[in-house]
Amino acid sequence: MAKPDSKFPTFETVIYDEPRSGVARVTLNRPEKRNAQNMQMTYDINSAFDFAVQQPHVKVIVLAAVGEHFSSGHDLSGDGDKTWRDFPIVGTWANFDMPGAEGRYSREMEIYLEITERWRNLSKPIIAQVQGKCVTGGLMLAWCSDIIVASDDAKFICTSTKMGGSGVEFWAYPWEIGPRRAKQWMLTGELSAAKAEQYGMVNEVVPRAELEAFTLDLAEKLCTHTSWTLNMTKATINHTQDVQGRRVSMQHAFAVHQLGHAHRVLVHGAAIDPNTLPENIRAHFDKRAPRAGDPAKASAAE
Fold first, then answer.
1. Which of 16, 38, 114, 233 could anchor a disulfide with 75, C-beta 3.0 to 4.6 Å?
2. Quick check: is 68 in a domain?
3. Is residue 118 one of the residues assigned to a domain?
4. How many helical (H) and strand (E) elements, i.e. helices and strands, does the chain have?
5. Exposed, middle or buried, 189 (CB in 10 Å: 0-12/13-18/19+)?
6. What is the DSSP letter of 37?
7. CATH number of the CATH domain containing 279
8. What range defines the domain where residue 259 resides?
9. Tens-digit pLDDT profile for residues 221-279
10. How many domains does one find in the chain?
11. Strand order across the 60-65 sheet
C-alpha cells in the first residue's frame, strides 16, 4: 500500500491518497481491530470522502482497507473516552443524550443510517475493494459503494440476527441480493465472494494478490469518462432504486431496528441479547462504557 503524500490530509483511522490519475483512495487503517468502525473512523471516512469530492481532478473514489480483513463491523469495544461531542454533526439529528429510545434513535440515525446514505449519494462513484471478512456493520461500508470488487477469499457475514436483531441500520439486504436470498443469508449468516457475485452484490471476484491492482485499473478505466457522465450515471441509477421504494423500506427497517433495541433493553437490560454473543465478542461487550440512550446500568452494542 502506497504511503500518503504529505500534501494530502491525514486522519487517525483512515489513509487518504491518490494512487492513479483521477483516483482518490480512502483506506481503513485499524488492522489491529480488523478495521472495526468506531465513531472516529466514521467521521474520518466522512471527512476523507468530502475532501475527495471537493477535488476537481478526482473522478472516482476507492474504499480499501489495510490488513487481512476489510471490516469486522461496528466496534463493540466502544469509543474510548470520546463521545459525540468530539465530532461534527453532519446530518439533521441531534439530542443524542436524551434518555431512553430517543437518544439511541437519534444517535444511530446520525452515525449509521444517514451518514451511510450520505456516502451512497456522493456525486462521485465509489469502488469498494474488499478482502477477507466483511462483517455486519462492514456490509454498510461495502453497500454505500457503487461497485464492489472482492478477493476470492472474501466472506460477507451477517451476525446481527445471531445477536437477537433484525439486520444492520443501513438495511440493504433485499436490494442487494433479492428478498428470498436475503432471508436465507440473514438467518444463516455467510456469503462467499463467489455467491455474492452470483447473486449480483459483487461486480468482480479476483485473486487476493491481484485485488489492489485490479481495483485501481478499473477505477482508472472509469476515469476515461467525463465527470458529468460518471456523476449522472450514478445519480440516475440510485434514483431508480429510490423510486422503487428502497429509501422508504430502509427507514421502516431502521425503525424496527430501534424497536428491537428497546425490546432487548426491557428484557435483557442491554441493547442486544448478551446471551447470544460468542464469548470473544461478549468480552468486548461487557467492557464497553454505556452510550447515549442506554439505561443507567446497562452497556450497549450495535
1. 38
2. yes
3. yes
4. 11, 9
5. middle
6. B
7. 3.90.226.10
8. 14-287
9. 999 999 999 999 999 999 999 999 999 999 999 999 999 988 888 888 888 777 777 67
10. 1
11. 14-20, 23-28, 60-65, 126-130, 147-151, 204-206
